[in-house]
Structures are given as structure tokens and as C-alpha cells.
């Protein structure tokens, strides 16, 4: 049945009726090309799935990758397979190249096949580089910066290359859209076309006979070679899957931050160049250009240099020796580069810190989403971030309980609630209140309010009501108002805008508006007046929006506990 | 055993297909799982609470329906979180002082946005010419039902509207 179907298809596609044969018979030596084709397909399918989630813009790229990695079921695995699959292609291509070189398969008439293979290797490395940029995390972003910096050093055309890659003058949206277009359209199309040429020419010329003493007989490709091919593919994928699972997928650093210093390293196939640059010191730019040119040039020139028909390795020691030497140098430089990093303790610490940062950013992205203003703003998504950050910078020194330079009342959870007000009224110059201020040492300091507990509670209720809180006891407040008239109005007013003689006006005490204007200018006549407060005015340093944000935070603190504060998470 | 032994060839052929198929599955399953993951899940969140449309006095008693933008305070869309996102529009009318009628501007036919035809004093969908009365019932055209009402309440003199999306193209009103 299947045989008939195959025959019918052969007829209708114009393919030869006889199955393809291999003049040298099947061999495990021939599986590497098939494995490469298979891995290219793996990259294609995993790449499609990733592209279905990825957004190539400077604001969204990191967020979309973090989403794939941390929020979509199976995203981490597919991204890991795609990343390590790229590495696998470079490794298998390297084996394929060495094998081709050792067996002399680049010799006439197969020079074109060899050169097309070199082109494919370059395209694949370009694929890896552009793919790495797309993450737009610290690692990808700084790689793009360094790699384009090197490209810019190319004589004459360097500036143009960099500008084309960036899509203008600086890294941004166009850098990513371009890298993406190259990564998912241009490179796949080019690789497909060159692979087609590479394979079809190789097939037409037939495999290079394996150099053995006993000649092999011609045999059909199917099924003996096909079986060897699929076994090799299955082994390759099993290894890739095992490696990906063992490595826990692939890392994702914190979002690209142009203000931070980050220990960027190129992808492993380029690490030898990185090490070479370190060793070259002042000549790094030259080395970065010349070394790959020498290596690439040698590979391209090999079929022209080693021209004699002799293919047995023992007769081609010079050329194979040169190739082995180059690979040895590249391998040694790569190992040296990784070893240098592994032995660098300070780097280890910086990496650990960068990982903490990455985990923080990813946790925030999972929890709060990435703001549309950009991935870096993910750090600002914890609740009341802005107010807390401002408090940290501008208020904490004088108002935090733990501050050694405290100059004002402690501001902490419960600030301005009933208990706080009662305690304040009883001991206005107590340690947690005005105790640390200059005012407390002067005659203008507020006198403790001496009232029976029930009366004090009534007065507290009146003051508490000024905050606009919703849980006010109206009866207590009424009674408190009478107490206020008799006990407090010598110094304080509660009427909006009225300047009272001894102390601050208490209109709206503890409300968001009150805090906003107080922070703006504590020395205002309706607040502390020009002489009684050491607190600087912030209306010229902080915008109204910032002061309002702090005020919102202070209002929140009134009903918050220490645990609530911890629950907000670190800044 | 020779390479051209028919039994061996048959076995190798079957084995090749089996191993190849297994490899294809091993690659295909995780990929397919990822691609279909978002289907059937809430990737774009809507507002979880009724939206405040401001004081009721904004709407004059007896006036023609007025178009109001429905703005969600926060919308999580896959990886992003955006503030003040316009979700759609509603037409609001206040026939009597204590009654407000809100109609979704989404045409129940196929989801275009209907507009108020001031000359005809009814709603018209520009895509397929469905017409609806000022209070929502269908007048004319391919729509299977009238415009969808949106729940509104008046709390402390302020209007609160619940944004609902309904299935399109059917006579019944089913929420999405």
C-alpha cells in the first residue's frame, strides 16, 4: 500500500522511479548532515512557538521573554530547547566540519560544498548573536552594545554597519525590530537556501568514499542509512533535552539597564575572541577583527591550499595539523576565558548580585505585570513604590525610629491613629513625638494635656475625625469639640485657613491634603509657623504629585501594622 | 545478514519510521503545548469592580443618549500592566431623575461600534446597518437581538457601571 503510494508520488513529482543509492553504502559517518537538518527543524518549530509570544520592542521585549519563561506552561522548556539547540547546531557543525576536513572531502570536485558549509556556519553564528540580543536583558543588551562596538571598528564601513544594525543612532525599538527581522526572516530564508544548495550538490556528487582498506558496495539510502540518520537524530534530541532539563532551561537576566554596570560576556562560540581581546590589551580592536578573519580565511582557503587528490590523513599532516592547531588555540582560549571568570571571586559576587536583581525583576513582572512604560519600570511596581522611595530618601533620616539623626516625631505604622493621638496629647515632648526637636526644649513646646481618660478619648476622637477616617464616633466627637473649645483654643484653631497664635492649625489633621500641604511648607503660618519647625519645606524640591504620593502613604500608615509594611515587599 | 535481506529492510523501514515519529513527537509536543497554552485562559483582564462614571448630575434628565468611554483603572495584558485603558464605550440615558439606562456600544451582531443617529433618534451600526431604539430593542437589520444593557447603580450620587461583554451573533444574552 505504502509502496504503491510512494510509487504514485514518484511518478507525479517527476522524481526518479529508482530509490536513491549511496555508492559507498550506509555509514554512521554520514549522519551528521542529517542531524544538522533535524536540529534546524527543531530551531524552526521552537522558534515559531517563541515568536508567537515575543514582542520586539525596547519596552516589551524583556517582559515578553519573562512571560514566556515564568508564566506560560512549557515556555521555559521550549525557550531552553531553542537556546541550547542553537549551541548544538554549532557543535554538530563543528564535528561535521572536522570530519569533512579529516576525510579530505573538501577536495575537488567538492570545494563548493565545503564553502557553502562555511557560509552556513557563519550564518548560524549570526543567528545565535541576533537571538541573544532579542532577550533585551542585561546580557543581551550589553552583548549588542559590545558586538556593535566591534563592528563599528571595521575600516570605512564600520559606522554604516553599526547604524544599520541599530536602526539609527542609538539602541532602541528599531534595533530590536531589525534584529528580529534578520533572526526570523532573513536568516531562516538564507540558511534554507544555502542548505538546499549544500545538500543538493553534495547528493549529486555523492558522499566522499570512506577511506578504508576494504571497498564497500553500492546500497540504497533507504532504509539502512535512513535508520542510522533517525537514530542519530533521536540521540541528538535526547542529549539536547537532557542538557536543557539539567541546566534548568536558560537564564534570563534583569531588564536592560543602560545605567548599570553588568559583566557582559559573549555567547560561548565567541568566548575565544573575548579572551583574545583580554590578552591583546591595547590591540584588542585589531585582534577582534583579525583573528576571525585569519581563521575564516584559512577554512575558505583550505581546498585551494590542499589541492593534491590524496585524501588519506597521514599524507596531509601539514594541513590537518594547521587546522588542529587552530581548533586547539580556540579551545584553549575558550577554556581559559571560562576559567578566568570561575576564579574571579569579585566577579562571582557581582554575578550573584545580578542574579538577585534578575529574580526580583522577574518576580515583580509575574506579580504586577510590566508597565507599558518599559521593563525597567517593573522595579517601580511594588505598592506605593514612589512614596516609599521618596520617604526612604527624604524623610527617613529625621523620622525613622531607627535613625540616629532623628530630628522629628517617629513616623511608623499606626502614625496618627487614636492610640497615637492619645499618647501624643499626654506626652507631646515624648521621645517618639517632639522629644528630638529643638521645639521641645523651648517655652513654645506644647504642654501635656491632662484629662480624665474618657475626656481624652473624646478629644482624640475629634482630632481623629479631622483625618476624614470613616469610623468616627459622632457622640464622642461632639463631646470632644466642647473640650477642644475649653482646653485647646488658646493655641490652636480648627477652622480652615485661620492662623492660630500658639500652635498649628489642626484643620484636616492627618488627611491626605493636610500632609500634602504640611510637607510642602511646614513653616507656613497655618502649620508650625516660621520659627517653630526645623523641617525644611519640600514644595520647591518635590512636585505636588510626589508630595501627594507621600501623603497617601502616610494616610495608609495610619491603619497599617508592621506586618503590612513587610508585606509590601522590599523596594 | 546482508544489507539487502528483505526482512531486515522491512524491519529497518518500520524502525526508522517509529524512531523518526517518536523524535517528531518529542519536539512537537512541548512546542504545541506552548503555542496552545493561552487558548481558553484569561490573558487580558477586565475591571473586577464597577467603574465610577462620576456624579449623576453629569447626565441631564430626558436628554439623548450620551456616549461615555469605559476606562479600566488597570488592565493586565499578557506581560504588561497598563493604567487607564479604554475598553469600549457605552451610551447612557437618564429618562427620569433616579433612573439611568446604559447600553453597550458593541453591536450584538458582529461587534462593530454602534453610533447615535441624531436625525433618526435611534442607534445605527455602520458595518451592517442594524438599527436599535434609544432604549436598546432592535428595530431593523441583521442583529439577532437588541443592544446589550450594562448594569448601573447610583451610590452617593455617583454613577457606577459594570462593564460586561456578551457573546455576539446570537439571540440570547450570554456573558463571555
What features would you highlight for this structure?
heterodimer, A: 571 residues, mainly alpha, Cytochrome Bc1 Complex, Chain C, two-stranded antiparallel ribbon, 1% strand, B: 176 residues, alpha+beta, Rieske Iron-sulfur Protein, four-stranded antiparallel sheet, 34% strand
Describe the model:
The complex is a heterodimer of chains A (571) and B (176). Chain A has 571 residues and is mainly α. Chain A folds into 2 domains: 28-264 and 344-361, Cytochrome Bc1 Complex, Chain C (Up-down Bundle), CATH 1.20.810.10; 385-567, no CATH class. Chain A is 59% helix and 1% strand. Chain A has helices at 2-13, 31-51, 61-70, 75-102, 111-134, 138-152, 158-166, 173-205, 224-246, 271-280, 284-305, 317-342, 345-368, 385-399, 418-426, 453-465, 474-487, 512-520, 544-559, 562-567; strands at residues 21-22, 219-220, 370-371. In chain A, helix 15 (418-426) packs across helix 16, helix 16 crosses helix 17 and helix 18 (512-520) packs across helix 19 (544-559). The longest helix of chain A is centred in the first third of the chain and has 33 residues, at 173-205. The model of chain A has no long low-confidence stretch (mean pLDDT 93). Chain B is an alpha+beta fold and 176 residues long. Chain B has 2 domains: 1-40; 51-161, Rieske Iron-sulfur Protein (3-layer Sandwich), CATH 2.102.10.10. Helix content of chain B is 18%, strand content 34%. Chain B is built from 1 helix and 10 strands. Chain B has one helix at residues 6-36, and strands at residues 51-55, 66-77, 80-96, 99-104, 115-117, 122-124, 131-132, 138-140, 152-155, 158-161. In chain B, the strands form 3 sheets. Chain B has a 4-stranded antiparallel β-sheet, with no helix packed on it. In chain B, strands 1-10-9 form a 3-stranded antiparallel β-sheet, with no helix packed on it. The longest helix of chain B is centred in the first third of the chain and has 31 residues, at 6-36. Chain B is elongated and about 95 Å long. The N and C termini of chain B lie far apart (65 Å). In chain B, 24% of the residues are buried. The model of chain B has no long low-confidence stretch (mean pLDDT 93). Chains A and B meet through helix 2, helix 3, helix 4, helix 9 and strand 3 of A and helix 1 and strand 3 of B.
Amino acid at each position: 500500500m505504502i509502496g504503491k503510494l510512494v510509487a504514485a508520488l514518484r511518478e507525479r513529482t517527476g522524481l526518479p522511479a529508482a530509490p536513491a543509492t549511496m555508492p559507498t553504502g550506509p555509514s554512521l559517518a554520514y549522519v551528521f548532515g542529517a542531524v544538522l537538518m533535524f536540529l534546524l527543524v527543531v530551531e524552526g518549530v521552537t522558534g515559531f512557538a517563541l515568536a508567537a509570544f515575543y514582542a520586539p520592542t525596547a519596552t516589551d521585549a524583556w517582559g515578553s521573554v519573562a512571560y514566556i519563561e515564568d508564566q506560560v506552561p512549557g515556555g521555559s522548556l521550549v525557550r531552553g530547547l531553542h537556546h541550547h539547540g542553537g549551541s548544538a547546531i554549532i557543535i554538530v557543525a563543528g564535528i561535521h566540519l572536522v570530519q569533512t576536513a579529516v576525510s579530505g572531502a573538501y577536495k575537488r570536485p567538492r570545494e563548493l560544498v565545503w564553502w557553502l558549509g562555511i557560509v552556513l556556519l557563519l550564518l548560524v553564528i549570526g543567528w545565535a548573536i541576533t537571538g541573544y540580543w532579542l532577550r533585551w536583558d542585561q546580557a543581551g543588551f550589553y552583548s549588542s552594545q559590545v558586538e556593535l562596538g566591534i563592528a563599528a571598528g571595521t575600516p570605512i564601513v564600520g559606522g554604516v554597519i553599526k547604524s544599520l544594525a541599530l536602526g539609527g543612532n542609538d539602541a532602541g525599538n528599531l534595533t530590536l525590530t531589525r534584529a528580529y527581522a534578520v533572526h526570523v526572516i532573513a536568516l531562516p530564508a538564507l540558511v534554507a537556501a544555502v542548505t538546499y544548495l549544500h545538500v543538493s550538490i553534495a547528493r549529486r556528487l555523492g558522499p566522499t568514499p570512506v577511506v578504508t582498506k576494504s571497498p564497500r558496495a553500492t546500497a540504497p539510502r533507504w532504509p539502512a542509512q535512513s535508520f542510522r540518520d533517525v537514530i542519530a537524530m533521536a540521540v541528538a534530541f535526547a542529549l539536547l533535552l537532557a542538557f536543557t532539563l539539567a541546566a534548568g532551561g536558560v537564564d534570563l537576566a534583569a531588564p536592560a539597564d543602560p545605567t548599570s554596570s553588568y559583566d557582559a560576556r559573549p555567547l560561548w562560540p565567541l568566548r575565544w575572541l573575548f579572551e583574545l581581546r583580554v590578552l591583546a590589551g591595547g590591540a584588542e580592536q585589531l585582534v577582534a577583527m583579525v583573528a576571525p578573519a585569519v581563521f575564516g580565511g584559512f577554512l575558505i582557503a583550505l581546498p585551494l591550499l590542499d589541492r593534491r587528490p590524496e585524501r588519506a590523513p597521514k599524507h596531509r599532516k601539514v594541513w590537518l595539523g594547521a587546522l588542529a592547531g587552530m581548533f586547539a588555540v580556540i579551545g584553549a582560549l575558550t577554556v581559559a576565558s571560562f576559567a578566568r571568570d570561575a576564579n574571579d571571586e569579585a566577579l562571582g559576587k557581582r554575578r550573584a548580585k545580578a542574579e538577585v536583581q534578575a529574580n526580583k525583576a522577574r518576580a515583580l513582572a509575574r506579580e504586577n505585570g510590566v508597565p507599558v512604560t518599559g521593563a525597567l519600570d517593573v522595579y517601580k511596581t511594588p505598592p506605593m513604590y514612589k512614596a516609599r522611595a521618596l520617604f526612604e530618601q527624604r524623610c527617613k533620616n529625621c523620622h525613622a525610629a531607627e535613625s540616629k539623626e532623628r530630628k522629628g516625631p517617629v513616623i511608623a505604622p499606626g502614625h496618627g491613629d487614636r492610640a497615637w493621638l492619645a499618647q501624643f496629647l499626654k506626652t507631646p515632648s515624648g521621645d517618639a513625638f517632639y522629644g528630638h526637636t529643638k521645639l521641645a526644649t523651648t517655652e513654645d513646646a506644647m504642654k501635656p494635656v491632662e484629662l480624665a481618660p474618657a475626656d481624652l478619648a473624646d478629644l482624640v476622637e475629634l482630632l481623629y475625625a479631622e483625618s476624614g477616617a470613616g469610623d468616627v464616633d459622632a457622640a464622642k466627637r461632639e463631646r470632644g469639640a466642647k473640650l477642644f473649645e475649653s482646653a485647646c483654643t488658646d493655641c490652636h484653631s480648627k477652622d480652615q485657613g485661620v492662623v492660630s497664635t500658639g500652635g498649628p492649625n489642626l484643620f484636616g489633621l492627618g488627611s491626605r491634603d493636610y500632609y500634602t500641604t504640611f510637607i510642602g511648607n511646614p513653616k507656613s503660618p497655618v502649620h508650625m509657623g516660621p520659627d517653630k519647625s526645623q523641617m525644611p519645606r519640600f514644595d520647591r524640591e518635590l512636585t505636588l504629585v510626589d508630595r501627594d504620593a507621600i501623603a497617601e502613604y502616610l494616610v495608609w500608615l495610619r491603619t497599617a501594622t508592621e506586618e503590612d509594611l513587610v508585606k509590601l515587599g522590599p523596594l | 545478514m546482508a544489507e539487502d535481506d528483505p526482512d531486515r529492510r522491512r524491519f529497518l523501514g518500520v524502525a526508522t519510521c517509529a524512531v523518526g515519529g517518536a523524535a517528531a513527537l518529542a519536539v512537537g509536543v512541548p512546542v504545541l503545548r506552548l503555542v496552545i497554552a493561552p487558548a481558553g485562559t484569561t490573558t487580558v483582564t477586565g475591571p473586577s469592580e464597577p467603574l465610577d462614571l462620576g456624579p449623576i448630575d453629569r447626565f441631564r434628565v430626558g436628554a439623548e443618549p450620551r456616549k461615555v468611554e469605559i476606562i479600566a483603572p488597570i488592565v493586565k495584558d499578557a506581560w504588561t500592566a497598563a493604567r487607564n485603558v479604554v475598553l469600549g464605550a457605552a451610551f447612557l440615558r437618564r429618562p427620569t431623575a433616579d433612573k439611568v439606562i446604559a447600553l453597550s456600544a458593541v453591536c450584538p451582531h458582529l461587534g462593530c461600534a454602534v453610533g447615535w443617529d441624531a436625525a433618526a433618534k435611534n442607534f445605527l451600526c455602520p458595518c451592517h446597518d442594524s438599527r436599535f431604539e434609544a432604549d436598546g430593542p432592535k428595530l431593523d437589520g441583521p442583529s439577532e437581538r437588541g443592544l446589550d444593557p450594562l448594569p448601573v447603580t447610583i451610590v452617593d450620587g455617583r454613577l457606577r457601571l459594570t462593564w460586561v461583554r456578551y457573546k455576539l451573533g446570537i439571540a440570547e444574552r450570554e456573558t463571555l
